[in-house]
Amino acid sequence: MAVAGPRTLNLVRQNQASIQHVCSRASSWWSGVEMGPPDAILGVTEAFKRDTNPKKMNLGVGAYRDDNGKPFVLPSVRKAEELIVSQKLDKEYLPISGSAEFCKHAITLALGSDSPVIADGLNVTVQGISGTGALRIGSTFLSKFFPGAKNVWLPAPTWGNHVPIFKHVNMDVKQYRYYDPKTCGFDFSGAMEDISKIPKGSLIMLHACAHNPTGVDPKAEQWDEMSKVIKERELLPFFDMAYQGFASGDVAKDAYAVRKFLADGHKICLSQSFSKNMGLYGERAGAFTIVCNDKDEAARVLSQVKILIRPLYSNPPLHGARIVSTILSNPELNSIWLKDVKGMADRIINMRTKLKENLAKEGSIRDWSHITDQIGMFCFTGMTPDQVEKLTKRIFCVPDKGWTYLSCWYCFQ
Amino acid sequence: MATSRFADIQQAPPIEVFHVMKAFSDSTHEKKVNLSVGAYRTDEAKPWVLPVVRKVEAELAADMTLNHEYLPILGLESFSTAAAKMLLGATHPAITEGRMTSVQVLSGTGGLRIAAEFLHRILKYNTFYFSTPTWGNHRLIFTQAGFTDVKQYRYWDGKTKGLDFDGMIEDLQNAPENSVVILHACAHNPTGVDPTQDQWKKIADVMEERKLFPLFDSAYQGFASGDLDKDAWAVRLFAERGFEMIATQSFSKNFGLYNERIGNLMIIVKDPSVIIPMRSQITLLVRGSYSNPPSHGARIVSRVLNDEALFGEWKECIKIMSGRIIEMRKGLQERLEKLGTPGTWNHITAQIGMFSFTGLSAEQSKYLAEKYHIYLLSSGRINMCGLTTGNIDYVAEAINDAVCNVKA
């Protein structure tokens, strides 16, 4: 289809009324609907599916794969599902805020069972449609009630979907430095410099662990420093925690930043996803939390959050949340789960190590230590778009910017 | 204590139906009756998980080939294709000519929200109409999606306890072009009053003439009359008339899958070539809202709709549910007429579906709650499913008392 040039478009615009009149009989409501841009990541999977090469690999999509390259249903999840079916529970509507049991277990996992925030009832925790849904509840609430400027400061780069989640609610997005392409690591001084210049009282988004897409996380001491400057700037930290347990294999370790910020007195927002750490991708289990000043404020905030959820989808889906709370509330299932998630994290860490070793064995003289320094599912390899294209043509499907998904790497003997 | 950013946030007004449900829940009276919630109840006043649903769930849990991978952004295709066929009929020209597209959504509410966002953001429509009264969430969904021109069309006639058809037609005739008109496909919520087939034809005439955009909210297909085709009659009429239109389908009631949030958003167009760009835009709306829909409910409905034997079992279930409701309607009307309760009560059996606008006033409703621990909405809306053979006498007597002794 030929693309209309500017002159043609102008003519069309000028004569719109008469054109519309002529076309009115055959006109459709939809004729002005433009094609939306394709999704970069899903486009890679499409290409992978079309590829007939037997050695093809998909290093694009963000879902865990086992050592045979297959999706993995966690043993703890299977057991929980059997248990749920045997209980023959009803299918009544959940409250708008979701399953209270699920919310309690989710926030306890995030903050620890000894959290004073939970003990004092300061958290408003509601069920969300996985991480995206939780973020959207957050962005919707903040767009309405956040007293500061309606902007969110995101790390550069960040998960692509952060942008539309905020833009859909008419918030602006800004960036602070995060990834250093020279070191393939964390640009700590750049981040600190930018954060210290963020206007006071603004909203800042932070990846709690296993930064997506770079795999680059601040060290504990660096988090401590960031907490101080964020406090000085009076910013509201919004943590996106999609990989608790899945990053290091240790749920407490992966929650370090979230817990430290709370201990330092920040009143945070938090979104949690159980897609990766429980392999519940398609069941959409997630939670959104705001930490409030006191119980009374928490009650008022909850009432407003519910008003925002109702016209989105009324109340959330239960199945995934039920699996999560069954696991987290049952000591036996919980300990099986902790092994399951450590197993996934260990396999990824193992693949990182092997990849780095094999690159050296292949004769690469480049410094590949960032592969093992980075953490979680994703790795910013440092490859250029040209190099990515070469790889894609040979065997692999890798998204444009050179990041690759680690758990899809087979274990080469 | 440090000042909080959120210190000025006010308590939001409570949503009535949840408030009333809580009042029922808190009540310890042994004869309490819940006539407020919008979910099916058995004759034992219990929730009912359809046997065919339990069967399929057990199969899914035992199926080791299944995993929990992400669905596509627009959901499970086998589900949405089957759902659309259920609504339009498998051989409908819109389907055979490739002019229909449908996507999985978060039940009825989710479908309405995505539809509203698409209509407002992409097509730039800003005027929407809903019936007086309508389901409480319609207004909120559309205004949150960005519509600012909020209009209503007359619907409920308090005098006849039926449809104010002339009022409705007049209001639609005065509607500006491109207004989105929310229509209840069947079993109007909250009144239970549906237009007759002739009335639907006239409504279609006016909407065609005034170039209004039909948006059908189909939450009760099969659940209203027990007959899937009958309950889809109005939607099919509009499709046959050549309207470009949207229908949202909920499987909460007819499958009893309330908490799995399974629904379908169906769009019919004139020109198939617009479907791809349209789907790409809806994709963006979904991605920024929840990325992709939940898998479980879709799998259940897809399995049932696509398997002849299971489909047959399910049709029996909807006959059971709709049959019990119709029986309770008959029973209540008979008892009120036998008691000589002032007024006419044939509207109870003329109305259809889960809900009935009894005609009781807010004062009378309050009286029923306080004296009899019978909980209904202040609009006089009752959920027929709250009635059982065990409590129908009690409720009839209470209504009789309220109508006789409490001023409307």
From TrEMBL, chain A:
Establish whether keyword Transferase is in the entry.
yes
Required cofactors, per record? Answer: pyridoxal 5'-phosphate
Biological source species: Penaeus monodon (Giant tiger prawn)
- Stored SUPFAM superfamilies: PLP-dependent transferases (SSF53383)
Q: What name does this protein carry?
A: Aspartate aminotransferase
Family to which the UniProt record says this protein belongs: Belongs to the class-I pyridoxal-phosphate-dependent aminotransferase family.
Q: How does it assemble?
A: Homodimer.
> What is a single Pfam family found in this protein's UniProt entry?
Aminotran_1_2
The processes (GO biological process) annotated in the record are:
L-aspartate catabolic process
Q: Which reaction does it catalyse?
A: L-aspartate + 2-oxoglutarate = oxaloacetate + L-glutamate
Gene (name only): GOT
Gene3D superfamilies with a match to the protein in the record: Aspartate Aminotransferase, domain 1 (3.90.1150.10), Type I PLP-dependent aspartate aminotransferase-like (Major domain) (3.40.640.10)
Q: Would you tell me the Gene Ontology cellular component terms?
A: mitochondrion
Every copy of the Aminotransferase class I/classII large domain together lies at: 55-393
EC numbers: 2.6.1.1
Q: Which GO terms describe its molecular function?
A: L-aspartate:2-oxoglutarate aminotransferase activity; pyridoxal phosphate binding
Highest taxon, organism lineage: Eukaryota
Q: What class of enzyme is it?
A: transferase
